[in-house]
Design brief:
Blueprint: H1 4-57, E1 64-65, E2 81-85, E3 102-105, E4 116-126, E5 129-135, H2 143-147, E6 151-152, E7 156-164, H3 168-176, E8 178-181, E9 184-187, H4 188-224
Antiparallel strand pairs: 1-2, 2-7, 3-4, 3-7, 4-5, 5-6, 8-9
Length: about 220
């Protein structure tokens, strides 16, 4: 017959073993979650840092852009990510109806609106200033005939030097989606970064509390024995 004290001791060992397994499982889960959140945070910060680096290297505050209309199809499609080289003068831009440079420029009718991406098909000098006649590859008429304007040289943000298909959807989603908090608008990218940081702080605080509780329980058990 097994003594009662030994039986209780065995049950205590089993419970401790179960508790240890649960703690290890929770720790592994939290470590994995911590790593995933940290990876997302690094990706968001890295993408922002990349834009800053490109802005310096390509001499423009808008190094990345994405078309929002089908006017440049099939050459460019909605959602493509365009890499823009800025800091250009009129002589740096080749204008031709067939294979002229694709430029990104402020809308002459609404300079504060979204930039336009069209091909430079001709450039003319007027009163000592250069202007570009532009056209979307998918449009029947050039912009001067369709809208009555030409693009001043100082309205040109830059020209397209590289295209990455479809990635622009992600860029637009991160930087153009606005979230309003307490009357203030922030981009989705900034919101996700803030949530990631808060989640990391919460996990660290929870881990610290559990560690403190475990140490207290172990000390209490040691004192009882």
């Amino acid at each position: 017959m097994i003594p009662v004290s030994q039986k209780l001791g065995d049950e205590e060992l089993i419970e401790r073993s179960k508790g240890g397994y649960t703690q290890r499982a929770n720790k592994l889960f939290k470590n994995g979650l911590f790593g995933a959140i940290l990876l997302i945070l690094f990706a968001l910060i890295g993408s922002l840092a990349l834009q800053w680096i490109l802005a310096l290297a390509l001499q423009t505050s808008t190094p990345l852009h994405t078309p929002i209309s089908r006017s440049m199809e099939p050459t460019l499609k909605v959602g493509d990510l365009l890499i823009i080289h800025g800091g250009l003068k009129a002589e740096d831009i080749y204008a031709n109806p067939k294979d002229g440079d694709i430029i990104v420029f402020k809308n002459p009718s609404n300079p504060n609106g979204l930039p336009i991406v069209h091909r430079a098909i001709e450039k003319v000098q007027k009163d000592g200033k250069w202007y570009f006649i532009t056209k979307g590859d998918n449009n029947p008429f050039d912009d001067r005939k369709a809208f009555g304007w030409m693009v001043p040289e100082d309205y040109v943000i830059g020209k397209v030097i590289y295209v990455i298909p479809k990635v622009g959807y992600l860029l637009r989603g991160l930087d153009e989606t606005k979230i309003y908090i307490g009357g203030y608008a922030i981009t989705l990218r900034m919101f996700l970064m803030a949530v990631d940081i808060l989640a990391l702080l919460y996990l660290e605080l929870t881990s610290y509390r559990e560690s403190s509780q475990r140490e207290a329980e172990e000390k209490k058990t040691a004192d009882n024995h």
